[in-house]
Amino acid sequence: MKKIDLDRMITEPNLLKWEKANLAWYGKDKLLTHEAHAIHEQLLKDKVNTKSQRYWDLIDEQLYKKHKDRLAKYFSFDN
């Protein structure tokens, strides 16, 4: 896994917002975290602007599409 660039995190509000929204699983669930990183790498190859809202939406959409049931356990009221 790549080292996280803390300086970049502090200056990118969309990243902080996304991490806060996904705090329940990000960095804790290895499969989902790995998948988020893989989607990130593909978006970089596709030249999607990482500072755009579209970039973050695509990560969320692709994660949900592939791992709907797994994500549901983190966002249900019964967890």
Describe the structure.
- This protein has helices spanning 6-11, 13-21, 30-45, 53-75.
- By secondary structure, it is mainly α.
- It has one domain (11-75).
- Helix 3 packs antiparallel against helix 4.
- The radius of gyration is 13 Å and the shape is globular.
- The chain has 4 helices and no strands.
Report strand %. Answer: under 5%
Distance from N terminus to C terminus (CA atoms, Å) equals 28 Å
Number of strands: 0
Overall pLDDT: 85
How many helices?
4
**Which blocks of ≥5 consecutive residues have pLDDT under 50?**
none
| Main beta-sheet annotation | none
The level of helicity is 55-70%
Radius of gyration: 13 Å
Order of helix and strand elements from N to C terminus: HHHH
Class by SSE composition: mainly alpha
Estimate the global geometry from the Cα principal axes. Answer: globular
Number of domains: 1
Summarize this structure as a short list of keywords or feature phrases:
79 residues; mainly alpha; globular
Outline of the structure:
The chain is mainly alpha-helical. The chain is built from four helices and no strands. Helix 3 packs antiparallel against helix 4.
In terms of topology, how is this protein built?
Blueprint: H1 6-11, H2 13-21, H3 30-45, H4 53-75
